[in-house]
């Protein structure tokens, strides 16, 4: 079951986006051409196939600008949709609904695009034990939302920031004087709940990391042949994560090498927005 986004994150994201859009004077178009008491019914429908994510944000956008708005979800986050499928129906004051439209669709389309890209990779490796995970290559200010979309698409989350896990990368290794030195210093500093992961570029570095008991190892930019050798050398001792130039065309081959995780920055930083539209159903009486 997909856990929803925390309410405070949704509220903060919507307030920030609406403040950007409404500016100093509000929606002057809707205020000028629509009666204050006009009441409408609309629906959000898919124009392309994909996976939905971000419904809480869309609903909050409408309800922030019209507390009377009635929102009905036709699907839930994580649902696969086809062109023409209705995602959400909204009834309420026309001014509020139309003022919130772009914010709602921006979040819903962006997060659904991430969920769709993630689902495509997850489906491609479903015959293996590997799982797709994200990276920190996210849009500034939207990381928690984008990582939620990855979960909605069937992926899992890597660390959320620099403060919740240790990932010793190539530059850390160079600055510390080697893998062993870096890991030793990290172990002296952290608590028992903090995971240490080490990035390695070759099999010699993998052997060193395994020899000092590193539990999670990132295999960076290795060929599939190198990944297979790494899996064999590991013999189940550490969790192995493959990363670097992960594409939909290549991901199945990576998974078939036997790695545990495959991390992709593309599912967040390069996922195309899912095409969704808000369609007018009818003007409705305001009872």
Task: Give me a quick take on this structure.
The chain is α/β, with parallel strands linked by helices.
Mean pLDDT: 97
Gyration radius from CA atoms, angstroms = 23 Å
Count of spatially separate domains:
2
Alpha plus pi helix count: 11
- Cα distance spanning the termini: 37 Å
Order of SSEs: HHEEHEEEHEHEHHEHEHEHEHE
**What is the CATH-assigned architecture of the largest domain?**
Alpha-Beta Barrel
The proportion of strand residues reads 15-25%
Q: Which sequence of strands runs across the widest sheet?
A: 6-11-10-9-8-7
CATH topology of the largest domain: TIM Barrel
Weakly predicted, low-confidence segments = none
Helix and strand composition category:
alpha/beta
Write structural notes for this entry.
The protein folds into two domains: about 5-120 and about 270-285, Quinolinate phosphoribosyl transferase, N-terminal domain (Aldehyde Oxidoreductase, domain 3, Alpha-Beta Complex); about 125-270, Aldolase class I (TIM Barrel). The protein is α/β, with parallel strands linked by helices and about 290 residues long. It has helices at about 5-20, 30-35, 55-65, 95-125, 145-150, 170-175, 180-190, 205-210, 225-235, 250-255, 265-270, and strands at about 40-45, 50, 70-75, 80, 85-95, 130-135, 165-170, 195-200, 215-220, 240-245, 260-265, 275-285. The longest helix is centred in the middle third of the chain and has 31 residues, at about 95-125. The radius of gyration is 23 Å and the shape is elongated.
């Amino acid at each position: 079951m997909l856990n929803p986004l925390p309410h405070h994150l949704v509220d903060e994201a919507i307030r920030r986006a609406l403040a950007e859009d409404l500016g100093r004077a509000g929606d002057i178009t809707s205020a000028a051409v629509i009666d204050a008491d006009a009441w409408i019914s609309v629906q959000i429908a898919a124009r392309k196939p994909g996976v939905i994510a971000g419904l809480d944000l869309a609903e909050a956008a409408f309800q922030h600008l019209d507390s009377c708005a009635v929102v009905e979800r036709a699907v839930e986050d994580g649902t696969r949709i086809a062109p023409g499928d209705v995602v959400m129906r909204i009834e309420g004051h026309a001014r509020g609904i139309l003022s919130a439209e772009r914010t709602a669709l921006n979040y819903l389309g962006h997060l659904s695009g991430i969920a769709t890209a993630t689902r495509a990779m997850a489906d491609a490796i479903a015959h293996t034990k590997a799982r797709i995970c994200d990276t920190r290559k996210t849009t500034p200010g939207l990381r928690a939302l984008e990582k939620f979309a990855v979960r909605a698409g069937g992926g899992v989350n890597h660390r959320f920031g620099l403060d919740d896990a240790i990932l010793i990368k190539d530059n850390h290794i160079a600055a510390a004087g080697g893998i062993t030195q870096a890991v030793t210093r990290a172990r002296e500093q952290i608590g028992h709940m903090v995971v240490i992961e080490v990035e390695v570029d070759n099999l010699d570095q993998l052997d060193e990391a395994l020899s000092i008991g590193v539990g999670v190892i990132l295999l960076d930019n290795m060929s599939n042949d190198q990944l297979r050798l790494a899996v064999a050398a590991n013999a189940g001792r550490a969790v192995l994560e493959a990363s670097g130039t992960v594409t939909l065309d290549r991901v199945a081959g990576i998974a078939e090498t036997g790695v545990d995780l495959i991390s992709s920055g593309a599912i967040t930083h390069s996922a195309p927005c899912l095409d969704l539209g808000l369609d007018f159903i009818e003007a409705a009486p305001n009872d």
